User: Fold this.
Amino acid sequence: MKKEVCTQVKKNKKKKTHVPFRLNMLFFMVFVLFSALILRLGIVQIVYGDDYRREIERTEEITVNNPVPRGKMLDRNLKVMVDNEPLNAITYTRKQGTKTSEMLETAEKLAVLIEKETNKVTERDKKDFWILRNPELAEKKITKKERIKVSENEMTEADLYKIQLSRITEEELKSLDSELEVLAIYREFSSGYALTPQIVKNDGVSTEEYATVSEHLDSLPGVGITTDWKRAYTFDKTLKSVLGKVSSSEEGLPSESLEYYLARDYSRNDRVGKSYLEAEYEDVLQGQKAKVKNVTDKAGNVIESTTITEGSRGKDMVLTIDMDLQLATEQIIEKQLKEKKSFGNTQFLDRAFVVMMDPSTGEVLTMAGKQYGKNPKTGKSEIQDFALGNITTSYAMGSTVKGATVLTGYQTGAIQPNSYWYDTKIRIKDTPPKGSYKDFGNINDLTALKVSSNVYMFRTAIKIAGGNYVPNEPLSINQSAFSTIRTSFNQFGLGVRTGIDLPNEMVGFKGTETNPGKLMDLAIGQYDTYTPMQLAQYVSTIANGGNRMKPHLVKEIRKPVDDNNQLGPIVEEVSPVVLNKLEMKDEWVQRVQKGFHMVAQEQGGSAYIYLGNKKYESSAKTGTAQAFYDGPNRKKYDEPQDTMNLTLVGYAPSEKPEVAYAVVVPWAYQGHSGHSMNKEIGAAILDKYFELKEERAKGKTTEQSVDTKVDHTEEE
Assistant:
């Protein structure tokens, strides 16, 4: 028993000796772990503390789109028509946390270094700036009663601001005269988005200004220097209205299209096409913007910038226009206008138009228009570009439409090829007689086109209307004949939009009266009005055998020039589009083609004197329309003034037409005799077309021609 007790005591002692050892080991391990943790925290705080603090303070990632230059426009022979002219520019980029006082301070410093125009500073700009400069005085312009109304929600702070603006006096605004440059600069500073460069000045930045600002950039936070651009037109007075305009950096997005562009990731100060080709092909010319992602801290400072997309200049557009032919055509028109204005009965003559196009493809080779107008600076009369008039103005075109009348007669069964009518004056009871310029006797359809018989067209129209003409008796007609003839004319492009790739194309005007006399006028082109472009589409439809081609000004779209200044590859080629085919027999169209050929190539044809006996063989149809003067000076006259419109349509060569054209000379002269400006222009433009063709076939170039290498500095 005693032995067992002793043994138990020894065991207890042995157990007691192990407990402290284990506790010590546990304490030691805890100590080591705490030491490692403290060491780790020390490393994180001391070594990486700043990095982690910046990481924690990062609050926003902002993607900024930087604009790129627009694409060029070239003519069909790759001559540059529209380019981008480089400009020295001074910019300002506002940080998110930039205070108004900081922008003002920078604007004051920059105003000392550059000259900034102040003519765009508005009265509202001045009032806003005055309040900014004089906060205490501005505060005194608000009464206690008005403050109470705000607290009682009867007025808003915005209402108070309007009151402040209204109470600023002229004398107070005059106190800003010495600070107008600062105001103009501040105005640019505050108009842009945060982190988006805003143009402060890009027009007329002198080398000295550019260098001075560059030297002081450290003391001008947000200010930078760069190279900007503006649109440059190689031919300043040619086709400028058709090419269109681009908004300036100050204008930015047009207000009427603001939502449209903002939804397409544009910035408010982006430059965009405002009109015509620049606007119509904005998606092509604008290019791919450079996208930069900026990471900012809580203070708005950019701590990291990453380029997401490099961006690329807008694609280049090759137009269908032949600039050599365009320029020559414009010179021909100007010469004719100056010559014919010296005639005694041409007081209303002030404009003329020419459209030339490929009848097989619809490619517009020239779209020339000239008119007399006043120079806005000098107030003197001068000849100005009016190419847009080819699609935005319409006139009675006269006998040029008789080809459509004859074909409508065939289609309706009113006449057959080789049908005869006796050409003598039409005499309807109680109405003035209507006839050709002379009686031609018994003639068929071909002779009617050749000599431009009115009576043949009158009789055809009466037959279309189901009328039974008896001399000196009343004449009743089916009113639907107006619709029948107009619908037929529409097939040729007369009285409908041509589909040209330009906005704001007009349709023309339809007469509203429906008596027999007006139906006869419609048949000879003296009732409804058409545009010069419609007339060109009409004759092209006859020239190519019956296909109404969609006219277009863009031939192809190319990638921007490469680093070697070579034209980029073709991205898209505009294919010919047939809008409709005439619902008529081919032999009918060929019959009218023969009549047009007789007009230009046979003795007695109305255009033979001017177009016969040429190296090339052409077909044509002349037109003279009795009209009323409806020009800019019409309000000077108490009564409508009678005038004559002159027109000419045609194509060449007659067998395989390469070019179709329309010449329109509104209000050419008064009275029944005058000049033949339409025919003289028609002959001259065809001569020029074949002259250029011959020169190019021999490998020659004209003064306006260039090789395929396009130089950026060509317009500088």
